[in-house]
Amino acid sequence: MSIIIERDLRRLDLNLLLVFHVLMQERHVTRAAARLFLGQPAVSGALKRLREAFGDPLFVRGRAGMEPTPRALALAGRIEALLQGVQEALAAGQPFEPVASERVFRIGVSEAVGAALFPGLMQRLAHTAPGVRLVTLDTDRHRAAAMLERNEIELALGVFDDGPRWLRRQALFEWRFVCLYNPRLIKPRRPKLSLREYLRHPHLLTSFKGELEGFIDEALAARGHRRRVIFANPHFATHPLIVRQVPALVTTPDYVARLWRRDLGLAISPLPFPTPSHQVSALLKASGDADAGLRWLLDTIVAA
What is the pTM of this model? Predict the structure, then answer.
């Protein structure tokens, strides 16, 4: 059985460990200060106290920012586990009052899901929880679990595979790919583009790997067809602005296409070949079930 020695712990308060945690993630004093809603001098002062407490520089200046020392790297896992345990203990069984709360939630989300969800969600929060703040980070199916494990985010929203047992996944909605275009520049014979029309026009592609081919190109190749991609970009928001000016097509999730049709006067067509549906889900730690605030946020997202 381990023995807790009070005189050792009196040298260190929990806020210093939180500063250490954020510095490990940001590797930059100014960014850490902004994330903690503190001034830069306060974070520098906390770092000085941490160095004194642990008898080590912990972070030294490097080419890419503040680099952790071997001692800091060794401490990181233990401090992370300690903070996570304290957070879960505080949240367990505690009521959550949205109107009075000033909690900051950190959410991992893809650009497309964020564009579709957050305008309506922020409108709801303005009325039901005006003190609540959201911070979002970019994530995807490959990074979300690790970001949750490192406590960089509390909740992830996107298309995810089944994960380890310590994760919970809740379905939000189904979606399919559709085709978006400017009806003033492209005039199909019918509201639904034919395969011939789809292949005749140039295409824009959302590519996170910097390539000119993706899922749709694989589906077309399986049927012996090929489209001409003239522009690839990792950001969804660029494409509708190009489509407004150029007679080209962009294949995109239907929930994003509906926003662009409404706001930019673009037209939607189903794809002229079958593709499977996909599911947007919320991903969170199993321990989040005991966090009333996180459950409230998830319920609000579902409603939105």
Answer: 0.68
